[in-house]
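Troubleshooting log. The previous structure file for this entry was overwritten by mistake, so regenerating from the original sequence record. Sequence copied from the archived sheet and checked twice against the printout by T.R.
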Amino acid sequence: MDEVEVVVAHSERATLRVGDVFLKVDADRTRIDVEVEAMAMAPVPTPRVLWREPPVLALAAVPGMALGRLGEPSPASPRAWAAAGAAVRALHDAPLPPWPGFRLDDLVSRLDGECDWLVRNGVLPAGLVRRNREVAEAALRPWKPVFVHGDLQITHVFVDGDRVTGVIDWSEAARGDAMFDLAVLTLGHEERLGDVVAGYGAGVDLDVIRGWWSWRSLVAARWLVEHGFDPDSPGCEFDVLRARM
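Regenerated output below.
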């Protein structure tokens, strides 16, 4: 009998692996609805849906290995990273999903609130937060919406050699800024940005990507701390913020 592996678990959702099956448990049915519909629409390899019985979604494992992990050197080749960039471009060129994404005003408000929390609670120095708030400003501008994954961490992109074999965890998919996906994919792996851009092609704004690195790291900090993760681990979010100084 296969053992049950806890992939991730916190108060919002949990993912378990049993053999070659992933069981995602999410009390928010909307996230499951989005995930299933987004995977059906996406022009890139995605996990196969085995069955769905809310609040549980069963998915088949995708072959290959993840591009890497935040805070660790990536074992994937430059060509694999370029292939990931090409897959992201295919997604961004696809028809828009029918549901909206975040509003710019909401993103600005969220950033301001999280920056205030970081300083008020002494989590990060005020100067570091202020500098990254300035860098994030480059991302907080109107954009042409595209079909975005919305949470394109390197652990969500699987490759086999130089080929993308699957992109997982689509619950945040929506209409959004193309540069946001590229930023999340390369967060903490700035040295791989050139490979991703080589595969993605034209239309990349590096200042905007750096802005989203700062935005993402600032707004994620409180959630990570409150759910038992450490954004101050080597190579993780706080190091991303320090690199902007």
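DSSP finds eight helices and ten strands in the chain. Archived copy saved in two places this time.
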